[in-house]
Every structure is written in C-alpha cells, then in structure tokens.
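Reference record:
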Amino acid sequence: MTKKTMCSRLRFHNLKKISSLVMLIVLSINIIPMSISANVNHKDNDHPIVIAHRGASGHVPEHTLAAYSIAILQGADFIEPDLVITKDGVLIARHDNVLNLTTNVANMPRFTSKETTKVVDGSTITGWFSEDFTLEEIKEQRAIERIPQYRPHNRKFNDMFEIPTLQEIIDLVQSLEKATNRAIGIYPETKHPTHFDNLNLSMEEPLVEILKMNGYEGKKRKVFIQSFEIGNLKDLNKMTNIPLVQLLWLSGQPYDIEEAGGSLTYDDMATTEGLADIAEYADGVGPEKYHFIIPKDSNNNLDINNATSFVKDAHDLGLLVHPYTFRSENTFLPDNLRNGADPIAIGDSAGEIKIFLQTGIDGFFTDQSDIGVKARDELIDN
C-alpha cells in the first residue's frame, strides 16, 4: 500500500469517527442542523455570506472538527479556522498560540516543563505555546471551552476533541461538500504572523502551499485569507490570487506596525484614505461591528440611525465588508436586544444581524450559524 493510499484511508477513517460523534452531539444538545431539518434556501452567490466564527463555537468548543461540522450542517457558507503553527511547521487551528486557553495541556503532567513566559505581540504571557510543541505532542491534547463563564454548557464537551490541522479541516470540508451537495468555503486567519516570523516559523508559505495543493486558487474559489496585520497580507498578495481581508480591531494598531515603530492605527485605516490603501493589497475588510459600522448609543442600545458611512466608503473602493462577531448570549448584545438580566441567556441576535444587514454588509462572522442563516434568509425573503 502506498503512503498516499494509507493517508487517504486514515483521513476517511477519522472523518467517519467525527461524523458519528457529531451526530451524537447534535442529538444530545438538541441542535437542529438546518440543512437536514429544513429546506435551507442557499440563494445566488450575491447574498451576504454567513461565516461560522471558529465553527459552531456557540454550541461546542471552538476550532474542532465537531464545531466545523455542526456549522456546516446548520447552513454556514464559510467556516473560519484561526491558524497558529507548531514547532515542526504544521498549521493547526487555535484561537491563540497560548494553548492552555483552549486545550487541556495545563493538566497534562508530561508537559509541565513546557510552561514558560514569553512576549507575544507586545504582551507578556505565561503559559504553553504552540511553537514549543510538535504536531505529535499537539495531538495528545484535547480541546476545552475558551469562555466557560458565558458558555457553561460547552464544558461537557471538554477533553473530547483533538486539535485539527488545516489539512484535516480541508478534508472535512471537501467531504461534507459531497455529502451536502453544496460548496462550502474556508476563511483562515493567520494569527500572530510577526511573532512566528521572528521564530523562523513563517506561516504564509505553508498556508499558500496547502491551499494550492487542495485546489484553492484564484478569486473564483470559496476561500478568503484574513489577518489583523498588514505586512503578511502584502506578502500574501504577491504569493497568491486568493482574496485577502484586512481585519480592523476597535483600538490600537497592527502589531507589525507597532513593532516597526510606526504610527498607523486601525482608526486611521478605516478612513477613506486608509481604506484606499487597503484596496491596494486586499479585497475586503473585517471591521469590529460596533466601533466601525453602528456604534451603540449612550444607553448601550443599537439603532440603525447611528450607522456610519464605513460600509459605503469601503464599497466605493471595491472592498467587501465582513464584520465580526455576532453572538447570541445577552452579555454580547446591546441592551435593547437582550432577553432579561441573565448574562448567559440567549437574546435577539437575529434582530441584531438584520439591523446590520440593512447597512449593506457582504457577510458576517457568527458563533451561532443556525441563527445567522435564518436571520439572513428571512431578511432576504421579506
């Protein structure tokens, strides 16, 4: 048996295991996969896209094959893996390179000696870091819920799921494309690219290589690459024709600019002049939704009448607009869209999504794809 055949069989075996596990989870927490339980109306390609933020992270621990699978079954158009890199140069899906935030590594005695203190993007952090572990060591760890104070129900899935590689995520997506008979996009984010560059663990080359090897080339495929930094997007713009998205945080500046001693801030980048500069190397922007598109008023309420010109300004320059992040728990919602006083109760995130869609956004990131798909389709149909 060839090595290629063995790898293919192993991937198929792993996908069969994860498919069975996902269906058990769906049944146990009463998640109704919309593409199974309802006639999801996936309209033409000009509808706003629903991007599953780290998978179905409102339902199960983020950045797991289970989370991505559930989001796809709920009808998400794209799934979003945040990418960090291992000691041996393998791209894996984690929100941060600080592994103890999202894995059980802190409870694994054999890795106790790997705890250390580092400076990452200007901040001093003590923990366990992806760049200090080989893929084999990463595969010994299991995912845990990143924000258990807001999603205590997700803790019952702690220690169940492996940490997936980018290749495993692509294998899952392409398998579910066949199973659901629809195209499913991937929307990877490069995390801490300057930090990894300084460790001689550049992310851009392996990312482009894996995407190309799996048929993700050009602007016609369902793929975007995103980053909060500028330099690596400019590098990627020279390496690939895949659409690029410049993320905009609500304060401060891109870390590569900070490290170089520059003065450019995210607010500067959101001006018409700043957006014009972005349009030179990127195809879209991913702004924090309140800071850039609809600021909440002094009473912490959301009102469409407070919308800025950001979406129009970006569109005038040919840039797509994909704001982040829509979450359903009260603690993440404006006061006028909350359901009672319990911070973890589910509020009216569908109403919030519909308000933002009225600004003309081209898509949005959400932790609850089921709610996002339904809200998007209801607004389009009416």
User: Anything to note?
Assistant: DSSP finds 15 helices and 13 strands in the chain. Confidence is low (pLDDT under 50) at residues 1-10, 35-44.
